[in-house]
Amino acid sequence: MSKPIYPEINSNEEVEQIANAVSSNSEQEEKLLGRDQEKSITIEDRAKKKGKFPLVVKLTILMAFLFVSVIVVSLVINKHISQDTSTISMPPSFEKSVILISIDAFRWDYANYCQTPNLDLIKSQISSDGFRPPFPSKTFVSHYTMVTGLYPEYNGIVANTFFDPIINKTFVMGTNESLESYWWLGEPIWVTNELQGYKTGCYFWPGSEAKIQDFRPTYYEIYNQSVPYQDRVQKVLDWIDLPQSERPNLITLYFENVDTEGHLHGPLSPEVISAVEYDDTIIGTLIDGLKERDIFDKINLIVVSDHGMATISTSQVIFLDDYLNISTKSIPQEYSYNKFHDLNLNLIQNSLNLEDFQDTEYDATIIDWSPITAILPSVGKEDFVYNALHNVHPNYTVYRKEETPLDLHYNDSVRITPIIGIAALGWSVTTHPQFSAHPDWFQGGNHGFNPFLYPEMTGIFMAHGPAFVDKYNQPVFDNLNLYILLCNILGLNPAPNNATESVIESLLKN
Length: 510
Ligand SMILES: [Zn+2]
Hints:
By secondary structure, this protein is of the alpha/beta class. It is 30% helix and 15% strand. Strands 7-6-8-1-9-18 form a six-stranded mixed beta sheet, with helices on both faces. It has a four-stranded antiparallel beta sheet with strand order 12-13-15-14, with helices on one face.
C-alpha cells in the first residue's frame, strides 16, 4: 500500500505534543499491514481451497503469453506495478461484472412500508436482515468503508468532518480540499480494479472524484445532486453499451433523496416513503434497460445503503456550553448540506489550524458536533474537559479515545480526537446560541448514532445475478465485507483489508 503524501510536518513543540498524543499514521499502516497478513486471502489461497491451483497456473501462463504486450505497456506506465498484480485482466464478462447502487440512508425496514416491486425482484434472490455501517454511521465514513473493507480508523475517513493534526488541515466533505489524495487511505475497490487491468465507472460515490494512489475510476462524474436520476441510469446503460474492451466491469450509482427527506421530515415520513418509491421506479428503468439488452440475468446487481435514520427532536438536545467554554472557532456557521446531503454541523466557515488549540482561553474546540462529538481539548485541559463532561448527562457518554468500546474500532488514528462524546439515539448536541438561531436543525431525522446499539442505523443489502446463490437471506452483517464480496465476483486479488471472507461465502455460488 502506498503511503499517503503528507506535507512537511511542522516541527514546533506544540505540534509534537498533539501528534505524539496519538499513534502516528505510519504506525497505523504497519499495524494494518500486520493484521492483513493474517486476514488477507490471496488468489492462490482461494485456488488451493478449491483444488484448482494447477489449472490456474496453466491458464495464467497461457494468458501471460497472449497478453504479454499489454503487460509490457502496463509495466511502463503503471508505477504501482510492484504491488501484487497476480491477476491478469481478461475482457470483462457480464457474469463477472457488478452494478452497485447506493440509496443514501435507506433504513433496513423502509421497504416494509413502501411499494417497491423492483427492489422486491432484486431481493427475491438475495435479501438481508440488514447491512451494518461502521461507527460513526455517517455517509462518507460508511461509503468509504464499504469500498475499502477497512475500518474508518484505517481508511482515514473517520467522520464527515475531521481534523488531522499532522497535515494541520480539516476535512469537510464536499469541499475541493476534501478531494486531496492525502485524506483517502487504503485502497478503494475501483483502484484495486484498475490496478488489475479493468475499468470502473462511478456515477457518484464518496471518494470516486479523488485521486487515490494516483488512480481515479476510468469513468467518473463530478458530484452534482441536481442531475436527474433518469440521466444517471442512462449513463450507466451507455457504459454497458461500450465495446467490451472499453466497458467497465464495476459500475456505481448513487441516489441521495431518501437521506434528504429523512433529515428534513424524519424516517417513515410520507416524504421518505415517496422518495423510496420514486427510487424503486428509477431502478425499474435500469432493470428494463438490462432486460432489453438481455443481460438482466447475466449481470450482478447489488443495492445497498450506507446507514439508516432515527427521529430527532427539539426536546432531546444536549448543550455542551452548559459544561465547557467552547472555542468560537467551533461554532458551526452553516450546514454542509451541499454535498451528499449529510446534515452535519461543521466548520466550513472556520478553517482550523494547530495554533487554535494553544489558546487556553477556551477549554476545547469541537471538530464535529452531532450526534458524535469530536472534542479537541486545549493544551493541558484534557483531564478538565473529560471530567467536565463525564456522567453529566444521562443521554451523553464521553470516552477518552483510548477507552472507546472495542466493537467501535475507533481509536487508532491521529484524526480521531482525544475525547469523543456519543449521544444516545434521537439526541442532538449543540450550544444554546446555535439552538436558538436554528431550532429547525434539531427536528426531523439524523444518523451517526452507534450502529452496534441501535438497529435504526442499519441499512440495506440486496442482490441479483449469476454470482449469487438462488435464494438466500443473509443475517445482519458489517458493510466493510462488501469489498471482499466485490473482489470475489470481479475476480480481483484484494488489497489488505479488515473484512472476514467467511461472512460472505453463503451469498456466492462458488
Ligand atoms: Zn444523511
